[in-house]
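Risk register update: the risk of archive-format incompatibility is retired. Evidence:
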Amino acid sequence: MMVSTPTLTDRCLKMSLSTLALDLLVRKRCWLLVALAALLSCGCHTVWALPQGAPETVCDTMLPFHAGGSVLPENSVSPFSIETSSSVVGQGQTLRIDVTGVPAGLSFGGFMIQARNRNPPYQIVGQFSPSRDGTVKLMNCENSVNNSATHSNAGPKPQVSIDWQSPVDFLGQVVFNATVAQSYNQFWVGIPSNPVQVVRRDVSSAAPLPTSSSPNNYNNNNNFNYASTRSPYVPPSFVAPNAVAASEDSFYDGCGQSKNCFGFPNGCVATKSCTSVSAVTVRGDIYEFELRSGKGTNAAYVALGLSDDGKMGEDLTTECVPENGRINLYSSYTSANPYSAVRVNVPQNSARLLNASLVDGVIYCKVQREPLTVVQGRSFDLRNGAYHMLVASGSGLKENSVGYHDIGRLPSGSPINLAVVQDVGGSSQLLVRLHGAFMIAAWIGTTSLGIIFARYFKQTWVGSQTCGKDQWFAWHRMLMVTTWTLTVVAYILIWVELKRAVWHAHSITGLITVILCFIQPIGALFRPGPNDKKRPYFNWGHWLGGNLAHILAIVAIFFSVKLPKAELPEWMDWILVGFVVFHVLVHLIFSIYLCINHWQISGIASDRQQSQRINTFQMGDMSHHQQHAMRNGMSMERKMDAPYAALRKGLLGVYSVVLILFVVVLILLVALAPIEKLFE
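Archived output:
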């Protein structure tokens, strides 16, 4: 058998085939690698969006940062639309917003949506509600809560529906702006909805609603079109705030058991009827503060101060302030003289807003504060320190600060460690009550009666004296000394309570009254003699000072009714008006008697002088007093009671009884304030 030997040609052919096979194998592997790379690349691009939604760092731009920002948004018309359930909504009411594809069924993965004011400063307004299916994640932008929304997962979705609540303190037009991502490298930014008009709540219920969702809700004159056949949307879980009974108020749940609660007026936590209230919950090193204003108070802010002494000044304060349709959180540091709440140089990152709402004018916020905060070199150590809780609320704001706490303010009666749960009571109001009672007794009671004696009873009880003085003067002096004493004591009491000057209408008019009252008896010590030529000037000055002090004092009492610390009912104004009317009416009657007396005495003197000229022989038959009266005109009135003395005495008795009733009622209102709690 012969074995053939491979020739050179055969060897070369085999080598060529081997080389070709190796080359094909290498090329095949390269194509596999390319295909795999393409597949991986395609797989990457089919990831819809960030799996946990948009980060809060893009609140301003709403621009996805895909691939480090190298992927730009689409410039074409968006295949997605933002539709609202109505184009008119009342303050505090709810809308449904739908993010849908065009045509319907077109899926998307990620989105972000906000409602902004259509006019400058274009701020974010309103709040979104959590979705029941869990597809929506709420965001906190611009130091507010739940005012933006994004996706909670990146899975495909044909439509997303979100509930949005309009702000209570905003009127105007809002536009919903959205970013929608169809894929990783394909997204549209700034997709607008049709404008939505936010109107007063009472107007929204009566205003006709817009027609079916059209691309433009404006006519040619840019006037808003309210005509509609589509009913307003109300989410199934929505409950009108008015329908919630006071007894079901969950804010007070756990008070005195798991959290410290404190509010004003004092004792309101037990009855769940606080005008403003706070609560502190402590879990380890987590300190959560809740603040809420009262319904119908028109509060512009609600605040809680942590104070060493229960007085305003050098306190760490947490403020919840509605601004531009959202609740903002501020930390401030109060100063006593002059009073102010300063936010500058106060670390704003020592507290963060957890939750907030503004419904029917009621401010609510939940805040977590750091256990240790250092402000201007002073440490507020919540773990180891004890502080007065100081709740305050007001109806006005200042630039970069809250206004005066005209709605109310109350410090706790004693400093507490916030981690120790207990029943927290307010500080004693005894000095305030005594101040008010003394001032009412002095200026409604003794001053009013003292002026009556001095003005209308100089010719009554003639010849009767007390301690060597005429009756009218003895009573006048006793009553005015009582006024002076009560006023000085009341002024000292309020200074002991406040420990600083507080300037408002009541304090200013009250201070002027106290000054006039103080100098009146001093001036009386230096009055000129009866025949001194300067005596008329003293009489006019003494009369003017006394009456001016009396008028200002009554005005100051009117101002005190509005003071939150006084806790007086508004209808007390009508009692004061009744006193003023009664007092003026009695003065008018006494003045008429005085004029009649003057005319009669002047007529008697004139007749007798004429008789003296005609019948001079009758002079010898006249008594000494009658002759003296004819020579000196009205000087006879000093020797006997003026006419109608009995009527004057009777009217004085009626005036005194009614005056005492006014004083007693007003003092009871002050001492038992707030009087409404007795009726409850």
